[in-house]
Amino acid sequence: MQTQDKVKEMVKQKYSEIALQDKETNAASCCGSGCCSDEVYNIMSEDYNQLQGYNPDADLGLGCGLPTQFAKIKKGDVVIDLGSGAGNDAFIARHETGENGKVIGIDFTPAMIDKSRKNAEVRGYNNVEFRQGDIEKMPVTANTADVIVSNCVLNLVPNKDGVFKEILRVLKPGGHFSISDIVLVGELPLNIKNAAEMYAGCVAGAIQKNEYLQLIESNGFKNITLQKEKVITVPDDILSNYLSAEQIASFKQSGTGIFSVTVYAEKPGTEKGACCGPDCCN
What share of the chain is helix, strand, coil (3-state, %, to 5)? Predict the structure, then answer.
């Protein structure tokens, strides 16, 4: 099993390569139900075309859900996008929060930060900024965000518990998140678990669905809601890179499920009746 540092460096290298390509190049080897789906990080992406604020130039086809669609963003909100990539979800969040709101994208891949900043600058988005940093230790002060969104990123992070602790720290009391991610029901074959490409493609880094939800609960979040769930089917031509034909058949019969989920949860607010001093209680 690779160390956390090695896993993170591998993910950074892979997504640096992706950042230097456009969506068409990234997707050229992943045509869904077609014959050439050998890039696993593209098989889970969803169609953003119906969402206002969508910018195709910022969409690299790397997500596994539409978290901004479910995030209940209001005008004037401060929104943080974890693993912001080329800026796709951040720009949709900007449309929802408006010119009086603010969006902060965080990504630890320098090439992605460069790309997202250029995308924001060319569109004149002065209330969207992108910060390079690790979402296990966000470059953001506590109690900053009204809403946090993330799209298929936490499964790339070895220390998922640390990320949820950071989300709790950075959200304002009463704030909430809507996160799309990959989870499992059942065990993946060892060859897939150990494959670097499958980790960069979000599958090998996924944890059990119940464990994922338990991490959220154990970190103190409330009103945890599964907003969306769909089955992810990994095509045989991808599986064949890691498994024999017999192993593929066994995997399919094992009952193991790979799912894209969008999860909502809230940071508890200040208790009613609590008072922080004579000047702040109304």
Answer: 35, 20, 40
Say if residues 172 and 148 touch (Cβ distance below 8 Å): no
Separation of alpha carbons 177 and 149, rounded Å: 6
Per the listing, tokens 């098989």 go with 43
DSSP state of 137: B
Distance CA 133, CA 151 (A): 16
C-alpha distances in Å from residue 95, one per residue of 29, 68, 128 = 31, 10, 11
In order of their start, the domains of the chain are: 4-29+44-185+196-233+257-266 (3.40.50.150)
Cα separation, 192 vs 199, in Å, equals 8
Distance CA 184, CA 204 (A): 10
DSSP conformation class of 187: P
Between CA 269 and CA 175 the distance in angstroms is 8
Per residue in 176-234, pLDDT (tens digit) is 999 999 898 888 877 777 665 554 555 667 889 999 999 999 999 999 999 999 988 88
Among all chains, which residue has been given the structure tokens 């540092």? 5
Write down the mean pLDDT value for the chain: 82
Angle, to 10 degrees, between the axis of helix 88-97 and the axis of helix 110-123?
A: 40
Residue 57 banded pLDDT, cuts 50, 70, 90: confident
